[in-house]
Amino acid sequence: MLAAILGGAYSHFVRGEKEFRMELQKGDQDLVRAQNRALVVNLLRTDAPLSRADIARRTGLAPSVLSRLVRSLIDEGIACEIGKSTPPSGRPATLIELNPSYATSIGIKIERSRILGAQVDLMGTILRRAEAAIHRPVRADRVLEDLVGVVNTLVDGRVLGLGVSVSGFVEPATGTNLYSPILEWEDVAVGEALRSSFDLPVRVENDVNGLALAERWYGAGRPFQHFICITVGEGIGAGLVIGGELYRGAFGGAGELGHITIDPNGPVCRCRERGCLEVYASDRFLCEEAERLGFEGIDPLAAAAREGLAPAREAFRRMGANLGVGAKNLVNLLNPEAIILGGERMGEGDLFVAAFEEVVCQHSFPEEASRLRIVPAELGGDGFLIGAAASAALEFFRVPAQVTLS
Ligand SMILES: [Zn+2]
User: Fold this and answer.
1) Are residues 250 and 357 in the same domain?
2) Are 293 and 312 in contact (CB under 8 A)?
3) How far does residue 190's CA lie from ligand 1's centre (Å)?
């Protein structure tokens, strides 16, 4: 763990056994202060409540530096003391956590048929919700109007920003939804609509990226620096967290797991390519299997599988195995610590996750496979909303970088 200790004009960067000492200019001191502060705020977000001694041990910060830092966070209302620890031996220590109500952010999820909104505190707890329906055929101007209306009902007190989760391709800089197959729209200026209505930072994020961020901050991803969050349902997506950070790719299109090619001569996918993973492992596959077996949709197919009907069980098993083929490619490419599985089809996880795990672990390199963890997402259906809000709070939690090249 990188730890930075500010002492006079010197800073000691302790990395494992080695200690580096470097003379700092004034600007560097400010930077190190800001970095230390961000380290502590992030640690309180993921691991609180913690004593000052815990924080010192986990960050490597000198007690005097840490003491000043915690004092200023408490004075600003960002952190608070919440009573004493009760250790089996030794003296009880005062415990510190983030003050969840210091500020909130607004998370919005644009779904196929509704806009969901939530006001979310610093610890990822939803405080209030709002909702508006989306009518067919989808008219982008109406949706954006309703989006502003939903946000209006939620903005209250100190708000860090507005975050929107939407399916498809999002241009990170502008927040324009370039393409969303679920909403069947293109080039919709979601970010601009909110910026022109609210004097707040706005971030628009691909929905699976948002979920990966939420799981990283508040859910199953907390112990991991490198993981893939895979969602399965109507579509198949992946959010990539590398080195603790969300990886969006150069143009915002990273993680389109559903559209990696399984068979170049396979059936046409909704993206117009052939033989994408989605053809073999999304709801489309299960719907086709249900129809072939004489069931009216996925729910009756799942019920039959749970009652032990072999062809129905086999349909889910094949879907899980196919998903495993796609995930295995990502595992070999990225060598993650964990795969987090989420999305609406996880309600049927009991029917396909075992087949998924078998394929991922049997075919990857043995060393990788034996250490790879496969875990369910923890935040459930609210993960997308919490992720949207988290994306709006990214700047608040950002650890300042050392150098910016122009
Ligand atoms: Zn495709």
Assistant:
1) yes
2) yes
3) 24
Distances 354 to 58, 319, 351, 359, 390 between C-alpha atoms, Å: 36, 11, 7, 9, 31
**Local structure of residue 123 (DSSP, 8 states):** T
Distance 136 CA to ligand 1 centre (A): 24
Instruction: State pLDDT tens for residues 206-237.
Output: 999 999 999 999 999 999 999 999 999 999 99
Residues at Cβ < 5 Å from ligand 1 ion: 259, 269, 271, 273, 276
Is residue 207 flagged as an active site residue?
A: yes
Final residue of a domain: which of 42, 68, 98? 98
Q: What number is the average pLDDT over the span 337-352?
A: 96
What CATH number did the domain enclosing 355 receive? 3.30.420.40
Token pair listed for 165: 């989760």
> 263 C-alpha vs ligand 1 centroid, how far in Å?
11
Query: CA-to-CA distance for 289 and 286, rounded, in angstroms?
Result: 5
pTM above 0.90, yes or no: no
Domain that holds residue 29: 3-98
Question: How far is the CA of 72 from the CAs of 41, 68, 77, in angstroms?
Answer: 12, 6, 9
Half-sphere exposure of 140 (CA within 13 A, CB side): 17
In the reported structure, the alpha carbon of residue 6 is separated from the centroid of ligand 1 by a whole-number distance in angstroms of 51
- Residue 17, φ and ψ in degrees, nearest 5: -85, -25
**In contact, 200 and 161? CB cutoff 8 Å:** yes
Identify the bridge partners of residue 164 per DSSP, sorted by sequence position: 108, 204
Task: Find the 277 Cα to ligand 1 centroid distance in Å.
Answer: 7
The answer to whether 216 touches 246, Cβ cutoff 8 Å, is yes
Can you tell me which residue has the tokens 């004034």? 26
Ligand 1 center–CA 182 separation, angstroms: 13
340-357 exposure pattern, b = at least 16 Cβ within 10 A, e = fewer:
bbbbebbebbebbbebbb
pLDDT of residue 404: 54
The full DSSP string for 161-205 is EEEEEESSEEETTTTEEEEETTTTEEEE-HHHHHHTT-SS-EEEE
Residues 279-314 have pLDDT tens digits of: 999 999 999 999 999 999 999 999 999 999 999 999
Which residue out of 121, 146, 207, 283 is catalytically annotated?
Answer: 207
Provide the domain count of the chain: 3
User: Helix or strand or coil: residue 304?
Assistant: helix
CA 379 to mean position of chain CA atoms: 10
Give distance in angstroms: CA of 115 to centre of ligand 1: 25
